[in-house]
Amino acid sequence: MDTAVRVANAARRLAIGIILVTCAGGGAFVLVSRPHTDCDIVAEMMDTYSGFQTESSAVLVAAAPEKDNLLAVSEAEARTGRTLHEQAHAIAGPVLRRAAMTFADGVSQSADEQRADALQPPELDPFEAALPELDAHHLQAADSFFGAAHVLLAACPTVPRPVGLS
């Protein structure tokens, strides 16, 4: 093969390689682009939580609180918890990340409790049904959830309070 042909082929391969790397890099940038600050991520988390609250309220208002409806809400809450965990992992600051993970854990725990409550047969005692027994674990989980929400919203004062935490 002639030297000129080899140089031309090498130049062509180099140009194609540069184009591929540039395209791949540009594509990766588009796919990986995300909020720039931790507070942007907290805002996304609060939007996610608000969306769940609005959706679940609409389901429970439109339909009777029957087993299937309660299970649908608990499944939506479980999906919300998973989404919140994914968002929380993107937070860079360790204190905010811990609070975000606690917030997401609270939503996931609530989904588990909702599912368990929906699967239990109704109580014969109407007083028990109206005022369910709250164990220490449930109370501590709720306290952790609201405490984490407070940390997130205090650290990001421009983030609107989500539906359900107002």
List the keywords:
single chain, 166 residues, mainly alpha, 2 domains, 78% helix, globular
Please describe the topology of this protein.
Layout: H1 3-32, H2 38-62, H3 67-89, H4 94-119, H5 126-130, H6 136-155
Helix pairs in contact: 2-3, 3-4, 4-6
Brief overview, please?
By secondary structure, the protein is an all-alpha fold.
Describe the protein.
The protein has helices at 3-32, 38-62, 67-89, 94-119, 126-130, 136-155. It is mainly alpha-helical and 166 residues long. The chain folds into two domains: 1-33; 37-155.
Domain unit count: 2
Count helical runs: 6
Helix content: over 70%
- Let me know the largest β-sheet: none
Content-based structural category:
mainly alpha
Report the sheet-strand fraction: under 5%
Distance between the termini: 76 Å
Question: Which regions contain 5 or more consecutive residues with pLDDT less than 50?
Answer: 7-32
Number of strands: 0
Order of helices and strands: HHHHHH
The shape is globular
